[in-house]
Amino acid sequence: MARAANYYTTPYTFTTLSGLPGLAGFANGQGTIALFNSPSGIAVDGGGNIYVADSGNATIRKITANGAVTTFAGTPGIIGHQDGIGASAQFGFPDGVAVDGSGNVYVSDSEFNTIRKITPAGVVTTLAGMPGITGHADGAGSAAQFDQPAGIGVDGSGNVYVADSGNQTVRKVTSSGTVSTLAGLAGVSGTADGNGSAARFSGPDGVACDPAGNVYVADTSNTIRRITPTGGVSAFAGVTGVVGSADGTGTGALFYQPAALALDQVGNLYVADTFNSVIRMVTPAGASTTLAGRVSTEGSADGTGSAALFDLPAGIAVGPSGSIFVSDTNNDTIRTGSAAPPGSSPPRLINISTRAQVGAGSNLLIPGFAIRGPGMETLLIRAVGPSLGEFNVSGVLAVPNLKVFDSTQSVIATNSGWGNAATSPQIAAAEAAVGAFPLGDNTSDCALIITVPAGTYTAQVSSGDGTTGVALAEVYEMASTGTRFVNISTRALVGTGANVLIPGFVISGSGTENLLLRADGPSLSQFQVSGVLAQPVLRVIDSSQNAIDADTGWSTNLNAADIATAAATVGAFVLPQNSADSATLITLSPGTYTMEVSGVNDTTGVALAEVYELP
Length: 615
What we know:
Distance between the termini: 48 Å
Strand content: over 45%
Oligomer: single chain
Low-confidence stretches: none
Number of helices: 2
Shape: elongated
Helix content: under 10%
Largest sheet: 14 strands, antiparallel
Structural class: mainly beta
Mean pLDDT: 92
């Protein structure tokens, strides 16, 4: 490979919108509940709806602006060529996707060498090409022939442009289905610039159209080509036949088989630089920069710039607000990204965990969390007992039982034995994605995946067989669309020694996070909680096991008035002025932290540990 120089001058932050990394399959649903199989082409309509060529499933999927995935056309696993409405239509290998201004979706079916059209109502017709016939012929409708059509784009007049990959040409299809050859010579591969049939292509793939009528083509000869409205072809970025990854202008940039292109409203061209597994941007002047991904490092990781990882991304689109959407093909996911200059990603709480003794009766382990924001939050929630034995934890809860409640105290999800759940493959993949330790295959540990809107929720961990023991409750953020944790809490029985209450939390992002931490005992009596911890001791511990803060009796603190004000600001219940409850205000950098709640002089009782995000 030639030189690599990627500067990330304007890095983008990418998150996973839909799908579960590394788990190919088919499922509709919200966020990571949905599954894809080698998604490729992707496009966005004016309302922010996303359309994906789910190639391995032979379907076209639709993702709403809030992340809900449905099947727009085709039936998963049914390969064929049939026009019809919705599930009655059939596709072979849908590849490229484009959307016109009226919401019509165009699909290149490379298996059957046709161009399909889907109306907003889901009516599928064949716009051009003869199903199953390979060739190169201009003409109207079924008189035209293609050979493995790949990328597809549409201009403002409704003309569709197709990278006819097997023919080494770029074709134009009018809205009525009349096909002509815009550039290239059928069956002749090459890299020559020129006009019309004098130009040569070598595996043309991605296509994008600008308002001026120019067509951009990602050529697998490692270049981006530009075609004028009159058919003049010239090199726009990259060096023919030279594999590499380098930012620069024109031939100063290097690519490795780019497969997809998309244009924004100001003429910036976004590139899925597929075999480099990075996302690039090329300005109208031809200057290339790298936005996200790490060159030749395949993986799946959300993050900013080089911290984000992709695995052979093969589709890219730009939404109405400027957000980028990527088909991360080998990860079987859809990713979304937006500009995030270095240091601008704000800190946020991303997961919570609590280890405590689960007793009989009302002495349960009850973690709670509050979510704020306009979108949806996808979570992995676990109640771990037997698998804690791998970490030399003694007296574990043998048979955990997990329930999740909403703010009305309605049960919205349950699990007793994660391996028995139909979603166990998704759970195992989710554990790997968020960095959770794997649960034993045949254990009675509990786990579930749930997608919820903003609100207040609690998870309840109890004993499934009436015995007592130590359990670990965990809530991991898997994906979010505009939502975030703003409060986390855990109520449990505080014992002595290894059986104290130990909630943990993780802060991601950059900068610092201002938090209110509380360990409530006596004040719980006002909520008719019996057997409360008389005098909690609160310690805050960082990832190096250093105690960084502590409190015993909040009202004796010099900043007690500030603590009371912070509690009122975030809506926490009032602690009595002279109570023995503990609280502290703390500013933390991104990292992993634990709170340790114990009783003065080894006393025991029920306590509530709370973490509030301060404005």
